[in-house]
Amino acid sequence: MSVHHALTWGSTFAAMAAAFLWFLTSRVKTPSQFPITVTSTHSLLDQIIGAQVLSTGSSPELDQIGIALKKQSALNAWAALCAAFAAALQAVDFIVT
Fold first, then answer.
1. CA-to-CA distance for 21 and 13, rounded, in angstroms?
2. Residue 43 class from Cβ within 10 Å (0-12 exposed, 13-18 middle, 19+ buried)?
3. pLDDT 10s digits, 46-63
4. Where would you find the membrane-spanning parts of this chain (predicted)?
5. Rounded to whole angstroms, how far apart are CA atoms 85 and 52?
């Protein structure tokens, strides 16, 4: 196999891997809504201008979207790395041949 063919096959494989990873990224399910339940430690009568309001919020859906976004981010990073590798192989092929 010639250098040209090896670089072309390597580039093709890397580009296909990037496309597959981006496809997987698009298949990650995210919740369409994520309501937040907020618990506050003050009442309307306690409002003081400039005071910090201490509240806590929670939502299972918010946790799910956080996990999904983490997964999407990781898949996107790997896909971008594969695309960069494919481009680098094409550049080397262009220089060598």
1. 12
2. exposed
3. 666 665 666 677 788 888
4. 6-24, 75-96
5. 49
